[in-house]
Queue: 2 jobs
Job 1
Amino acid sequence: MNATATVSGTAPAENRSAVEPRGPRPKPFFTPKKIMIYTTLVFFSLYFLFPLYVMVTTSFKTMPEIRFGSIFALPNQISFDAWVRAWTTACTGLTCNGLSPGFWNSVKITVPSTIVSIFIAAINGYALVNWRFKGADIFFAILIFGSFIPYQVMLYPLVMITREMGIFGSLQAVIFIHTIFGMPILTLLFRNYFASLPQELFKAARVDGAGFWRIFFEIMLPMSLPIFVVALILQVTGIWNDFLFGAVFAGTQNQPMTVQLNNIVNSAQGTPEYNVNMAATVLTGLVPLIVYFVSGKLFVRGVAAGAVKG
Amino acid sequence: MQPSVSIKDLSLNFGNVKVLENLNLDIAQGEFIVLLGPSGCGKSTLLNCIAGLLDVSDGQIFIGGRNVTWMEPKDRGIGMVFQSYALYPQMSVERNLSFGLRVAGMPKDEIDRRVKRAAEILQIEPLLQRKPANLSGGQRQRVAIGRALVRDVDVFLFDEPLSNLDAKLRSDLRVEIKRLHARLKNTMIYVTHDQIEALTLADRIAIMKNGVIQQLADPHTIYNKPTNLYVAGFIGSPSMNFISGTLDGQTFTAEDGTRIPVGSYAFTTPPTGATKAVLGVRPEHIFIGDGAQGMPFTTEAEVEIVEPMGSETLAWTKVAGVAVTFRCSSDIPLHAGDTITIGFDVARGSLFDAGTENRL
């Protein structure tokens, strides 16, 4: 009681009119700092989203409407014609079957490459952390060094190697190449993840008599969902977006979607069909986009599930 | 009788770093041995060597008379409990317990029987279907002990099993481990840096420093007759009071000239002539007031700080120019600034050679 009396008695004049501070501090929305932050955020989101907006709206327009010139306008009438043609009849080089063969080629390349590379990298990382062997550090250093060498340097030797193996110009060749090039970064990823798991778990499993594969499949794998999702995002988007290896190693009948997209957009004949080009581009980008959306959620859940002590 | 675990000339190097050197240790059947020492002294390393989780650089390990030096952990007849519990997070308690048995390909009814027995001994039956994440720290460590229990082994290895628990649980589980040992009568090797755990649990304590066992003896001997200055200072809380001086015949002369008679001390190796020495006295062996009467050494001293601990009082004073703590009953009214009579008998204390730091 005394304290309150003193406070109100000696409070400075400018404070007397203000509300007595109590409870949570009020957080006004329109402070200069907040206005700055949100202005910047809105500006940059628009900056990044605008090209996407143009692409999507253009793909729903008809050619006459596009020729009319107002690039930022919404379509007068929504037409799915360009999307259907991009998928089924657009000309990719000599054939005119649209993007769908390319889509399935990309699936045939991405699925095995992703599975094989992640599986091998997971075993690599596990062995490097838990089964220390002579020269493990050197092996790892070489592997990491591999990721610093530009692809272009290795392209020609790899063409010769795959030719000698008799797989050049086939699905196996691209899958082989993607698996190899995924190795350094994925191994690093898995090695670091397994190193962060308690070593005592591994020791306990060894005392329990489990061997290399048993510990890997029954103890380590069930604890590694988060890192598998990360590896999955990396590999699916990386391999799906790849152009170089697909163009070089896959052979004309196995060209991935990215290569066929290039053939559609850069076709030198006829008038450029902007709406078809835009639709084809969005279609090609759809898979990585979906992977980000879906696995992003899964990723968060995976991290939460993996964050169990003991 | 042949020892349950026998370590012969064991050495272990990590590169150029010698972690263990020529270590010898025989552990009797059913004995509870505690390896005690500060972190980095090699006690956990030694345990990992016994378990077979680390390859030794030299020497041999025998368990139950078999040379297991080159054997896999699972073939050594050991069960191990870790500080971080190391439970498999995605398996239920029951599957955690049975994992090792399933790996060994044991018949299902035998697995069930053993899991049931272990769960009953450790009183974790209601938890069998839970995941480790849904257990408290104490329950997790029980399951971890159970995992060693189901394997029906001769030797249990504990690697600081209680260090992750809070003080209350730690003392509860400590008693349970002692009860478990009384019931199972297995050989147990227990690593800890906690001297209370060591003193309460052990049949014998091995105090380690820099990869060398300093003293291997029963808790009473370790506490009352430490073999060197290191052991004397490491064991006991608050630690032993040390007074430096010179020993000549029957008299110890402290550095400030205070003379303390040592006629009653039982020398292991009586020194000849004047020797630089350190006198060690435990806080509870210093008496005050009437209790100090008749002690071979008494002096007047001023109390500097008083720390009431509830059941007893700890006080700081100065004897022979050195800060000294003593323990007394909390019923005695003591205040800082009081001048009191204090005294002790060197027979209860320890004398060390100042040069070699070994017990005299």
Job 2
Amino acid sequence: MQTMKETPADDFIAGPDDLILVTGATGFMGSRLVAHLLDSGFRNLRCFARPSSAVGRLEALCNSATGAGRVQVLTGNLLSRDDCMTATAGVAVIYHLAAGRGEKSFPDAFLNSVVTTRNLMDAAISQQSLKRFVNVSSFSVYSNMNKPKGRLLDETCPVERNPEKGRDAYCFAKVKQDEIVSDYGQRCGLPYVIVRPGYVYGPGNEGMTFRVGIGTFGLYLHLGGSNEIPLTYVDNCVGAIALAGLKPGVDGEVFNVVDDNLPSSRSLLRQYKKNVRKFTSIYLPHAVSYLLCYGWERYSEWSQGQLPPAFNRREWHASWKKSRYSNHKLKTRLGWSPKVSTVEGLRRHFEACRNRGQNA
Amino acid sequence: MLKAAIVGCGKIADSHASQMLRIKGCEIVGVCDRELLMARQFADRFPVNRCFSDLTELLDEARPDVVHVTSPPQSHFGIAKLCLEAGCHVYVEKPFTLYEKEAEVLISLADRKGLKITAGHDDQFRHAARRMRSLIQSGYLGDGPVHMESYYCYEIGSSGYAGAILGDPQHWVRKLPGKLLQNIISHGIARIAEYLVGESPQVITCGFVSPLLKSWGESEIIDELRVIICDEERTTGYFTFSSQMRPELHQFRVYGSNNGLILDQDDETLIKLPGARLPSYAEKFVSPVATAGQYLSNVTNNLRSFLLNDFHMKSGMKYLIESFYRSIVEGTPVPIPYREILLTARIMDSIFAQLGARESQAKQYQSAQPSVPQL
């Protein structure tokens, strides 16, 4: 297993004293990434967070871990170009994790993912010191519509061309965010890498991915069946993100992040029930869930949105169609390997779920 | 064909576009947002001819008949004025303007130019609200309302819209004269204003920051508001805005000299409160059964509307837009009388003036207190 500590610093495009900016630094992944970079010997970090974020824990982490290092916690709004200029001043690497996560409205998701990213990139390209812009995207951007059942979903797969047709606000914003990052790469020479994690789990995100199923009116519908679930444990994921910002020769590349030995949906649900909480679930075979999504989609169209198109064939293909996943590119190009096995990751996750008393 | 444009491509603009597209003979000829990316994302999702980041370009090049102003409230007056001056009819989202003076200027400008203008009080045009209006107009209450109670509550969480406001000292909502209240309460105030007779009602206001918000370190955002409105010693109204009370009511209760009505916006129900009392024990048994029957009838109404594909979450907005467009095309009266828009603005001005005066008094009092020497 190769970790960053074992990698000589001169293999990286940034040295331990180069300034690294992490946006969304108080978030689930952002805070872990900051800790990971500090553990890996990077001593000059700038952590950017919204004014509403709880920065106390981050400040404590920085104070305890840095020693002689410089760690700055900066609060601001990426919608402000001035704040973006302040945040990017003198940076060598930007890890852009801030996003409109959980937004249900398309304009809000777009504003907080795309407009913010544009502002940050505009500020970043004016800095001569910038060596890499890491855009953290999502698996949700992939289109699975015209892919044969069971085929591998990897970095070569097409991204949704019309995310506005049936996909949710988060997917729409992430597709547009990736588009604008690629565009800046081509037009302005922005040295970027896009990282697309699968479902990131671990303490701090104790839910159950919708790829397994959905709870509605007190009933849990199991939709995943024998599908492989593209999980990545949070520490493994931030390890991959960190490497994407530091490895030379990967500008313009896209990396999917999933762990090894992925469980099936059925196995994951069984383990969850055994380790966290027992509840009744009903399995809907793929043909049934597909037909229901199709029916919902048609009704939504016919009724001009009396029921919003929350379930539709595009969503079904993206979330519940049987696919296989690969981390081959991540391993070969970035030298990444998962630090935490899936068995251990799930053990920690279930323990956190129990502690939190979270329901499926 | 009515050519429409939307200015401001935030969340509420989506609702406008969705409802406008359901109206026959309406075409969205252009959208405008100061941030061109926002206009483009809108055009990616709705059939829109052109995107603009400059309002004058939109007006000159797209030449809309009607403009929907869905930008933040601070910009409503300026945008609406420019649109009226360019000869466009205007639909302004709530709150109509920041101050009554601005509302007066817009309405008088629209009148002078022979144009129509309306405010986005779409909640007043939902199914149950329309049934209520018909009943009142038919004289169900008696001589008219004696007393009204309007509840317009709002759940404040630490995430989402409220979280963004609470966490950002520079958020545009904080810069409104009435802050969070100004962006929300006009729906509930307008319900009362519709049935006031006089032009200058007395307004008595009490507002404060809830203990929950205080515990989060918030001292500016007032999220508990109680208002008494007294109209020429004839009709009275209570208005309640609360972020803390549960259930989170959106209700309007109106009592006349004969009967009363309860409108529940969330359940989309309208319940009649008969003024005549039943004899003795009949009141204990017959009345609850009759009320249960009314709820059942509401369920049937709602189900029928749903099956007829007329029960969208924003059905009130569609009705209001359609009525407004009809008033433009056919010259019928505007769906919301201008007097009601002005009265709503006047009451809101009075509420915020009282809250502001109290806040500055409190600050003066605090600064006037002698400091206690530290021993």
